[in-house]
């Protein structure tokens, strides 16, 4: 887009729109609590994200409360809420975001033939709906984003027509979603270029790109759209999102930074905050980052082969296109042990991106000492696992594991002796099972009967060695609602039970929070005026 009224520097600026708390939270099992959402929003704001899509206010009371609280706490970022193409959604959205210093309403409707068929609107009826709803939003808020959902499968002439209507009705940002992750880089660029060239008024608004990753091309598609004139990238931390996820924030930010020679655009994001927020989102969403994930994966800066290690020692640039410090990874690998004191732990935590208050530090210190007693060397990853474990277990949780002892070995059945506190009251029980984990999970079910089904049970060793901590992820499903739990411990069975209990607590929390029939997962992308 060549807008001659803008300086070169303004034209190169790409806005980062983070939708971890809306699109990201829509991935099955990634539900976050109110406090977790607030904490993530604060980190996004601090790292320089331009727009935070904080949720879908009409979806549930919980979503509404979270968006309102984020709107009130935001210091710099624009706070946006999502609304379908009807007045009720838009009014509710405005109620939630209006407290922000800079509020935005984001309203959308599916414009492709498949999506037009759902509310059973013909092209003219849909065009009228778009005009009415965008005008309504604009009467409430002077910052309105409009999205033709499934834009990449919408007829070009119709897409140009409805984009023009939305601009005339007052939209200030037009987002072009590749809802099903179907497009490819050249096509993504051509689509934006066509809109810029053909739609009257295109030079008065910002085009955004919103790409899903079903074919693994989300980041490439988003960057191609920027080269064609889009100036807002919609993305999520760790690429969290529906199905295969979205464009990953860390990927676009680092790609624009590292390849500024061929993509001369800038973002306002402080890349050194990336690692910290990535870890946080992995913990609270229960979606661990795959080891080989670009930028934030455990192996992204690890060099295993002799040739690579030799090259790295001579000159880091031989095999690294960015420095670990650029994304907030500490260079030093100061190994901690049982003689390390509170000050050393505080310094180490700071290096790792965790600035803890004194009482939190005390807690972590006690747990660090207990770990150091059991484990010779405590590595950075051990400390991160410790912190993450602390984040996932809250004092006010309904269920808390108090004691566990298992008997395992070649002669089954294996046994578990457990004390579990339910709403502050301790219950003890003995259970058997097919292996110690099964026995322990059976004990939880006997003390706290439920019909949640186990969908995923995954164990990872945090570091090497038989004394390594294990991090365990558990995903449970109950009546169509999914919750994921995580925990870490040097004892794999203890970590497993803590993760199971953590997932159950999240399900209980969701049961208590969501208004009947009004959960985000139940809101389909249909429209009712
Ligand atoms: O993928 C999509 O189309 C969306 C819209 C709601 C913008 O998330
Ligand atoms: Zn999406």
Automatic annotation (TrEMBL):
Pathway recorded for this protein: Amino-acid biosynthesis; L-leucine biosynthesis; L-leucine from 3-methyl-2-oxobutanoate: step 1/4
Gene3D superfamilies documented for this protein: 1.10.238.260, 3.30.160.270, Aldolase class I
* The protein's name in its UniProt record: 2-isopropylmalate synthase
Task: Indicate the enzyme's highest-level EC class.
Answer: transferase
Checking Pfam families in the record gives: HCS_D2, HMGL-like, LeuA_dimer
Q: Catalyzes what?
A: 3-methyl-2-oxobutanoate + acetyl-CoA + H2O = (2S)-2-isopropylmalate + CoA + H(+)
Q: Which InterPro entries match?
A: 2-IPM_HCS-like, 2-isopropylmalate_synth_dimer, AIPM/Hcit_synth_CS, Aldolase_TIM, LeuA/HCS_post-cat, LeuA_allosteric_dom_sf, LeuA_bact_synth, PYR_CT
């Amino acid at each position: 887009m060549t807008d001659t009224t803008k300086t070169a520097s303004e034209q190169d600026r790409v806005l980062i729109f983070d939708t971890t708390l809306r699109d990201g939270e829509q991935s099955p099992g990634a539900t976050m609590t109110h406090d977790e959402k607030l904490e993530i929003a604060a980190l996004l704001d601090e790292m320089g994200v331009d727009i935070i899509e904080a949720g879908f206010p009409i979806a549930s009371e919980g979503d509404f409360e979270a968006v309102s609280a984020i709107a009130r706490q935001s210091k710099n970022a624009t706070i946006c809420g999502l609304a379908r193409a009807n007045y009720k959604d838009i009014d509710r959205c405005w109620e939630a975001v209006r407290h922000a210093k800079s509020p935005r309403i984001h309203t959308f409707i599916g414009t492709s033939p498949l999506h037009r068929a759902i509310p059973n609107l013909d092209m003219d009826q849909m065009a009228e709906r778009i005009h009415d709803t965008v005008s309504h939003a604009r009467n409430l808020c002077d910052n309105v984003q409009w999205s033709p959902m499934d834009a990449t499968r919408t007829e070009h002439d119709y897409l140009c027509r409805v984009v023009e209507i939305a601009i005339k009705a007052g939209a200030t940002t037009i987002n072009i979603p590749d809802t099903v992750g179907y497009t490819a880089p050249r096509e993504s660029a051509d689509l934006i270029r066509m809109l810029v060239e053909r739609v009257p008024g295109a030079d008065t608004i910002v085009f955004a790109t919103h790409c899903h990753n079903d074919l693994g091309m989300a980041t490439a598609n988003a960057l191609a759209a920027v080269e064609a004139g889009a100036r807002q990238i919609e993305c999520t931390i760790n690429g969290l999102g529906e199905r295969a996820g979205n464009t990953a924030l860390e990927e676009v930010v680092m790609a624009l930074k590292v390849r500024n020679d061929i993509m001369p655009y800038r973002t306002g994001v402080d890349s050194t905050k990336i690692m910290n927020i990535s870890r946080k989102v992995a913990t609270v969403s229960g979606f661990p980052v795959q080891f080989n994930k670009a930028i934030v994966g455990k192996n992204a800066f690890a060099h295993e082969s002799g040739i690579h290690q030799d090259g790295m020692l001579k000159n880091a640039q031989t095999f690294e296109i960015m420095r670990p410090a650029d994304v907030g990874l500490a260079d030093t690998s100061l190994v901690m042990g049982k003689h390390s004191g509170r000050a050393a732990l505080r310094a180490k935590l700071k290096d790792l991106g965790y600035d803890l208050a004194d009482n939190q530090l005390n807690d972590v210190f006690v747990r660090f000492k207990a770990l150091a007693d059991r484990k010779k060397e405590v590595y950075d990853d051990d400390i991160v696992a410790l912190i993450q474990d602390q984040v996932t277990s809250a004092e006010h949780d309904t269920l808390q594991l108090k004691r566990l002892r298992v008997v395992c070995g070649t002669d089954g059945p294996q046994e578990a002796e457990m004390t579990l506190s339910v709403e502050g009251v301790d219950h003890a029980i003995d259970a058997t099972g097919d292996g110690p984990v099964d026995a322990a999970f059976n004990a939880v079910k006997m003390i706290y009967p439920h019909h949640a089904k186990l969908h995923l049970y995954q164990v990872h060793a945090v570091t090497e060695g038989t004394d390594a901590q294990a991090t365990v992820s558990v995903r449970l499903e109950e009546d169509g609602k999914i919750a994921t739990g995580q925990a870490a411990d040097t004892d794999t069975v203890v970590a497993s039970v803590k993760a199971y209990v953590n997932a159950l607590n999240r399900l209980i929390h969701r049961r208590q929070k969501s208004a009947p029939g009004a959960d985000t997962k139940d809101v389909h992308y249909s429209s009712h005026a």
